[in-house]
TrEMBL record:
Residues 12-66 form the HTH cro/C1-type domain. InterPro entries: Cro/C1-type_HTH, Cupin_2, Lambda_DNA-bd_dom_sf, RmlC-like_jellyroll, RmlC_Cupin_sf, TransReg_Diox_bact_type. It comes from the Bacteria. This is Cupin domain-containing protein. Keywords: DNA-binding.
């Protein structure tokens, strides 16, 4: 996991170098404070998918380039067989498997997200990003908090929401949760 986060940081730094921007300019363009941005580039800090999406959207590059280091190539269809999507483990608790990484000019980013259980007293990490999100629980039970409202999703349950509202998730019952997440800008 740490190696993947460092590789993402290197790709973000490479983007900044290619654009000939200072660290301060890049942090401002990405709507991040300077220290947070420096930690991302150095690989010292996890980076949320929403932050990567914001960077990708701001500089008009595919999210896959930042997350996986690959440029999408397909424009008519892209098939992902079960368990073969390009994945990145952002933290020890979250793993994202891209289901459409090879499709160019996507209007949405579908992922299989795996959330590992944490101790009950672990605070929930909240995220915001532009657009909308759809989540469908495949296995396990998921606590999803949206703008302070807590919802429990069971296998087969789904939720569509405004992702600019603060939202966070947590695996319940001490078991791993898998869900389909589709993020739309």
């Amino acid at each position: 996991m740490d190696e993947q986060i460092k590789q993402i940081g290197e790709r973000v730094r490479g983007l900044r170098d290619a654009l000939d921007l200072s660290i301060e300019e890049m942090a401002a363009d990405c709507q991040l404070d300077l220290k947070q941005y420096q930690q991302i580039e150095s690989g010292e800090s996890d980076i949320s998918v929403s932050t990567l999406q914001r960077i990708a959207h701001r500089f008009d590059i595919p999210l896959d380039v930042l997350m996986f280091g690959e440029e999408p190539k397909m424009s008519s269809y892209f098939l992902t067989r079960k368990g073969t999507g390009i994945s990145v483990e952002r933290t020890k608790a979250y793993k994202y498997e891209s289901l459409a990484s090879g499709f160019r000019n996507r209007k949405a980013d579908p992922f299989i997200v795996t959330v590992e259980p944490k101790p009950d007293d672990t605070p929930m990490y909240y995220n915001t990003h532009s657009g909308q999100e759809f989540n469908l629980v495949i296995e396990g039970r998921l606590l999803l908090s949206i703008n302070g409202k807590e919802l429990v999703l069971n296998p087969g349950d789904s939720l569509y929401f405004n992702s600019s509202l603060p939202h966070g998730m947590k695996a319940l019952d001490g078991k791993t949760v898998k869900f389909l997440a589709i993020v739309m800008q």
